[in-house]
Design goal:
seven-stranded parallel beta sheet; 140 residues; 3 helices; Rossmann fold; alpha/beta
């Protein structure tokens, strides 16, 4: 069964995403980042290029010829998925393919709409019997 972690009260979604991708890469994991649409895919793409002052997180968009050998893939359509380790969701709804993955990470910012959508996703997974882990990044 998919392990699901919620990161809540996230002050900077893109920074947290970058940190989680870097951590996954350090562990040798292959990552799929589910974005809401083309504009968000573009924003994530830019963010991963500037993750560290001396480098970037190796990533491509889904459909790129190197997607099969690149550790992080960005996709807003979630088609032709070639991995099953870690799915990071940036969408307001649960990704339809989440159960194919060993692990799902949900990032919930401090925005009221994001919090409401995050609560809805939490209930969705909980009501289907998934064990959920919560990490409150708003606490010091």
């Amino acid at each position: 069964m998919t392990r699901i972690d919620f990161y809540a009260n996230v002050p900077d979604t893109m920074r947290t995403l970058s940190q989680l991708c870097a951590k996954a890469l350090d562990r040798g994991m292959r990552v799929l980042v589910a974005t809401e649409g083309p504009a968000m895919t573009e924003a994530v793409d830019r963010q991963l290029w500037i993750h560290a002052p001396t480098g970037f997180l190796p990533h491509v968009r889904a459909g790129h010829r190197l997607a099969g050998v690149t550790p992080v893939v960005l996709d807003h359509e979630l088609t032709a998925i070639d991995r099953d380790e870690l799915l990071i969701n940036l969408r307001p709804e649960p990704p339809e393919v989440f159960s194919r993955f060993q692990r799902l990470v949900e990032i919930v910012s401090t925005d009221a709409a994001a919090i409401a959508a995050g609560r809805s996703r939490y209930r969705f997974y909980r009501d289907r019997g998934y064990e959920l882990q919560s990490h409150d990044l708003g606490k010091s």
